[in-house]
Design goal:
Rossmann fold, 40% helix, 2 domains, alpha/beta
Length: 288
């Protein structure tokens, strides 16, 4: 494929456009006019309308996440307000690739005969993105605490992809890593890696022991009662998507510092994230 369209997106998508152009792919963009560096790249054409952008193009790349309010697409590098309805009405019979796509958007795409791909459901990208998420969480922990991570007692809630990567990096720093999970197979892996396992049934009695608690579970775990067991100088970091796993407002009421750190890959490592996105797009194209 020697031509693609890109509509909207954050710094990751800007960097992606640069990388694709460097690979000699002609890129047509809309909703990125504030990314001035793109204007100086010969392979990139900035268009004045969605119709012009998608003309003679089979694949259209959208934002990650696609939308924050369920109405307009994410366009931080534009003054344009592009609604999902407007966008999909112009994408008929094309392939549209974006991230964090809600069910109602799939319904809209079906009505407009658009083939839709949520790139954040691709396992290779999800796994690679855990690296930036883990580094971002560690950066927050270093900035928001007054002691070293080395020697600190850190609890990870959840032992999925993100939990595994965060635990691995924390242990390398020298933190005392404890992990909460529910599956016996997870406890087995924790023992192999040298992490200290904690079962959900014993969580409350252990909460007061930790200097830092990092949540990766998108289900409310630390509510009012659980928070009452936590030390006031403990740092809480929630990496889970909505609704999150920590009652942030209740934590603040109890005098506990709590940070909800969403979408870290795009914030802490947009260049690396763009590289991973490009690799994943090429994988998708090669599978056709």
């Amino acid at each position: 494929m020697n031509q693609m369209a890109i509509i909207g997106g954050d710094l990751r998508i800007v960097k992606l456009a640069e990388m694709l152009a460097k690979d000699k792919i002609k890129i047509k963009t809309y909703g990125l006019e504030k990314a001035e560096n793109l204007q100086r790249i010969e392979q990139i054409q900035q268009c004045q309308s969605i119709e012009e952008t998608v003309q003679n193009v089979n694949m259209v790349i959208g934002p990650i996440p696609l939308s924050k309010d369920g109405i307009q697409i994410n366009t931080p590098f534009s003054i344009q307000n592009i609604t999902l309805q407007e966008l999909f009405s112009k994408l008929q019979e094309r392939t549209f690739l974006a991230g964090s796509i809600k069910k109602e958007v799939y319904d809209l795409a079906t009505s407009e005969k658009v083939k839709i791909i949520d790139i954040l459901e691709r396992e290779e990208l999800v796994v690679l993105n855990t690296i930036a998420t883990a580094e971002g969480a560690i950066q927050i922990a270093m900035e928001e605490t007054i002691k070293t991570l080395h020697g600190s007692n850190v609890l990870l809630l959840g032992f999925g992809r993100v939990g595994k990567t965060v635990a691995h990096m924390l242990q390398a720093i020298g933190a005392n890593v404890y992990c909460e999970a529910r599956k016996e197979e997870d406890f087995a892996w924790m023992k192999i890696y040298g992490y200290k396992p904690i079962k959900l049934t014993e969580l409350k009695e252990k909460l007061g022991y930790f200097d830092i608690i990092i949540n990766t579970i998108p289900t409310l775990i630390l509510k009012k009662e659980e928070l009452s067991y936590i030390k006031k100088d403990c740092l809480l970091i929630d990496l889970a998507s909505k609704p999150g796993g920590i009652d942030i407002e209740e934590a603040k009421k109890q005098g506990i510092k709590a940070i909800w750190a969403l979408a870290l890959p795009g914030k802490v490592a947009p260049l690396t994230s763009a590289e991973y996105i490009k690799e994943t797009i090429y994988h998708i194209l090669n599978e056709k």
